[in-house]
Automatic annotation (TrEMBL):
Its cofactor is Mg(2+). The keyword Hydrolase applies. It comes from Macrococcus equipercicus. SUPFAM superfamilies: HAD-like. This is HAD family hydrolase.
Length: 222
């Protein structure tokens, strides 16, 4: 029986592409006096390319950005510090994130978030998006010392909720970190397809509201 629906954060509940672009536009404008001969579009597009959907450390991203655009008069560490301080304030959810979570919550499902990342960033993003009142709990890799796809980070969440893996669904946008890892624990995996990766087998959605139909199907067959 399905009792809980668990989510990845970045790219699943958080519209990371939009959030990052909004932050980079703001960062460029605030540091524009140092961007001699650097076009705004190049600053944003190069960063997004080097960032590889968040899977490259930001230290390396800014180092590559400075080398590619020949930015002077300021150091990569200055913009990295600015990113650490300000990026979470630009967090923007998908347009159906809150609606979907509220409808699942109203149906009595426990909700949770399992995310890789820094405790400071991810906690702030959850707060900015207004998710804290909608979820029963959340687990952040830096805080617990395990990163997806390690089964241990999922088990920490299961212990918090008091649920068995087979009674939980996990929704995420990474075929390995989210889908394979949760499936191997016995959860029901749902892949949120953002167009970055090849679709794995099983349930697949492009919008979060599609989850509601999957949940109804599972309930009818239980």
């Amino acid at each position: 029986m399905l009792n809980a629906v668990l989510f990845d954060l970045d790219g699943t509940l958080l519209d990371r592409d939009k959030s990052l672009k909004m932050f980079l536009e703001d960062q460029y404008e605030r540091y524009r006096e140092y961007m001699v001969n650097v076009q705004r579009a190049d600053f944003i597009n190069y960063f997004i390319d080097f960032d590889n959907h968040g899977y490259v450390p930001k230290t390396a991203v800014y180092d590559q950005l400075f080398a590619a655009l020949d930015i002077s008069y300021i150091k990569p560490s200055d913009l990295l510090r600015d990113f650490d301080d300000k990026y979470p304030h630009f967090a923007y959810s998908y347009d159906d994130t809150l609606e979907t979570l509220r409808r699942l919550q109203a149906r009595g499902y426990k909700l949770g978030i399992i995310t890789n990342g820094s405790t400071k960033h991810q906690t702030m993003i959850i707060d900015v998006l207004g998710l804290e009142t909608l979820v029963t709990g959340f687990v952040i890799s830096e805080e617990v010392g395990y990163r997806k796809p390690s089964p241990r980070i999922f088990e920490v969440m299961l212990d918090q909720l008091g649920e068995r893996a087979e009674d939980c669904m996990f929704v995420g946008d990474h075929p390995d970190n989210d889908v394979r890892a949760s499936r191997e624990l016995g959860m029901i995996p749902v892949f949120k397809d953002n167009g970055y990766f090849e679709r794995p087998s099983g349930y697949c959605i492009t919008r979060l509201t599609e989850l509601l139909d999957i949940v109804e199907e599972l309930h009818a067959n239980s």
